[in-house]
TrEMBL record:
Organism, as annotated: Halovulum dunhuangense
GO biological process, one term: chorismate metabolic process
Enzyme Commission number, as recorded: 5.4.99.5
GO molecular function per UniProt: chorismate mutase activity
UniProt lineage: Bacteria, Pseudomonadati, Pseudomonadota, Alphaproteobacteria, Rhodobacterales
Chorismate mutase domain span: 10-101
Classification via PROSITE patterns: CHORISMATE_MUT_2 (PS51168)
Protein name: chorismate mutase
Coiled coil: none
Amino acid sequence: MNDANLDATDRAAEVLREHRESIDRLDAILVYTLAERFKHTQAVGRLKAAHTLPPSDPAREAQQIARLERLAEEADLDPAFAKKFLNFVISEVIRHHEQFLEGDA
């Protein structure tokens, strides 16, 4: 392998390393952001349980999904993926709210 190929390979390895470091940082941000989000949704769940409100709010959920789809489009992210992701998060939130309502949490 000549020096030009080695230099190109070294540069590619460095760029790959930088991308991976960015991915690792972003994964940490996602995890901590989700944890913070769930702290708030759990507080909502406790409040709903205390006032015997239903664990699910379909109108709010539809509004949030539409909002996230718009944000995804603005961010150049597949809105269908964003919708699947939020639906997954919402289902977990509702599960927590149901547990609060049942007194399990």
